[in-house]
What does this fold into?
Amino acid sequence: MASPQRAVLVEQVRLIYGVLGRSSWSTLALSLFVAWVLRQLGMPIAIWLATQTLLKLGEQIEIRWFIRDEAIAAHPERMVRRLMVTQSLHAAGWGALLWIAAAKAQPDQFIFVVMAIGGVLSGGITSYSPLPRVHLAYICTFIVVELVSFVALWLTAGSNPYFTYMPLLMIIYCLGTYSNTTVAGQTYQRTIELSFRNAELARSLEREVDHARCAQVEADAANAAKSTFLASASHDLRQPIHALGLFLALLDRSRLDDLQRDTMNQALAALRASSEMLDALLDFSRAEAGVIVPQWQSFAIGPVLRQIEEETGSTADDRQLFYRTRDSDLWVRSDPTLVKLILQNFVTNAIRYTVSGGLLVGCRRRGTVVRVEVWDTGIGIPPDHHEAIFADFLQLSNPERDRRKGLGLGLAIARRLADLIGARITLSSKPGQGSVFGLELPASVATSPLETQPQPAVLPAFKRSGGRVLILEDDEAVRQGLCALLTDAGFDAVGCETIAQACEAAQREAPDLAICDFRLRNGENGIEATRRLRALAGQELPVLLITGDTHPTRLAEAARADLTVLHKPVPADLLLKTIGNSISAPLPTHAAAENR
It folds into this structure.
């Protein structure tokens, strides 16, 4: 027997035993009542009742103490044969009752017996529907007994003809009940099979859920490993590039001839290209870390578009592409910095992947939404890649990994930032015909002049030198570069490798500003260094936290520290301006003494 058929049979046998365990008591009660009604028949009815009582009690003992699920599951066919034998005995008992009653019972008593037997036969439909072949054994036995009863009554002289032919009527009724049993049995079988299929589907679904859960765990682990790898690689790359930038800035401040100046400009251009790729990794990590908090305000979109054109237009000119921005007086409600970053990614991609023609940037209002669109005449994007291009590090047209085409993070960052501000990115593109990237933003109304387009934060130009700067940096090249650059700028720069050395230097002479690397050796970090230095030099000590780490967890930790954070590589002019802005206006004590 095939395994599914065996499982169905096991369930059918269990159902029958379950029904019999409850119905035996009712049929025993009916037997007692019938015997009481026919009590004047004497010994024959007493023998019949004793037999019925033994059968019913034996059935209960069998079901309660001898029938086990393990036995049914191990030998279902044996249990079916057992049922057919035991139930045939019950059928013989009820079949013989009609013969006993026909011999001496009164007509009204005989009618009661017929009704009782008819009820038992009808109850068999319910009892045996799970497995009709057990019912077949039951009615076959019943029919044989009834045929014997008919012959015996027919041969008995003086028998009531109505009583004589009643066994034949009971046979017809019995056949009708079996017909109903077969129909109900088919329904039972389909129900059992369906329940097994549902159970198998549930198990399959559970397995799929487990597989999906495992896949999700693996994907999360892979994503975490990717983030850790990127952070480590980014940190290891940022350190030497940051040091290189410091030394190049120091060299750039010296007197160079024309050839040296050209070489310097080329080196600075290569440094900027490296910095741009690292900045893309930083934006990606910041988006993953969730440290970006939107600053909601109403602002005019036109100045943002013009600012993007001013910053990227020269790149389009170098590629001999036209770049046009349509003027707009529309206002939106969002974060202007994040909106600019998203649109700048669209424009940068349009320039990179457009060989001829150019791009057009404009916006239009549709109801309560302003859609900013970037049109280009570039290579276009196949329809089946419209979603894939927003994946991390994916570039469809850069198999050679040309660094001038970026890292493949621009659109991934744009998607994350758009989700952050609740904006919707749209894309329409055909290969060879260009693309249209859109950003849908909530429309707003113009507000007062004080709330117009926010100006980006501009650090004041560094106008003076002087001041003691404590540098805590475990990378020797970066530490030497910082000390050399700040010394050349007129600062008293003191380099330290560990927090202990920095505290000793602060105890000898209080610094006017401290520059701390975020991740130091031996598990130390710039946040702990800040706490200890301020305990020595005062809580008002300005501290710049400079880090080459882009791991999302550590970015979030740095953001919570409420310190000025700069990310390596830091341009020298930005570093000097930030130092000038951080040191308080009055000259430090030792610097003022020197000026006197």
